[in-house]
Specification:
By secondary structure, the protein is of the alpha+beta class. The protein folds into two domains: 8-111, Arc Repressor Mutant, subunit A (Orthogonal Bundle); 123-198. The protein is built from seven helices and four strands; from the N terminus they run ββαααββαααα. Strands 1-2-3-4 form a four-stranded antiparallel beta sheet. A hairpin with a 3-residue loop joins strand 1 (8-10) and strand 2 (14-17). Helix 6 runs antiparallel to helix 7. The longest helix has 29 residues, at 136-164. The chain starts with 7 loop residues before the first strand and ends with a helix.
Length: 200
Amino acid sequence: MGRVGRSRPNPGGATLHGEPSQGARDRKLNATSFVVLGMLSQGPATSYDLKQRVGYTIGNFWAFAHSQLYDEPARLVEAGLLTVSEEEGGRRRRTYSITDQGRAALREWLSAPTPEQTEVRDLGLLKLFFATFGDDTDLANLARNRFESHKARADGYSAMYDQLRGHADRNQMKSLELGIRIERCVQQFWAEFADELEHD
């Protein structure tokens, strides 16, 4: 898939865009850039399609403002990493496709070292840290609430795993498997802590 030049009619009833402007290739890519490139490696999509794909896949472990999925593709088109076709009539939806340059950028990112520590933002842990300044009833409720929350998520992941078995690729299934293990581990922690509190 090569670069597309200046906007031109497409026999399929859309207009194509994709010529990178001067300096666009030097723009720094961020995590959202690679989310878009990765999702489009699975096939062309509109921004709405991307939002749906993210919602039931990586949205479970990579939180970000989904509004970025409407802005970032246009930036990647300017950088020559995507092309876009726009409907001539109707809703004038824009469908994005990854270019050879986009695939190369994605491969380069995948090959880079990943030494960063995992970020954790858990409201339950934050409340637990300061629980000394509350009362025992609140702490017991916190333990029960967090147990139920993590159990529900783990159960949901397990159901998803069964549905996707034989359809998703191995690496996607391993990502889901890790999610299940993490949620079950945290679920067990809160269950044991709730039991401790009952016997204090």
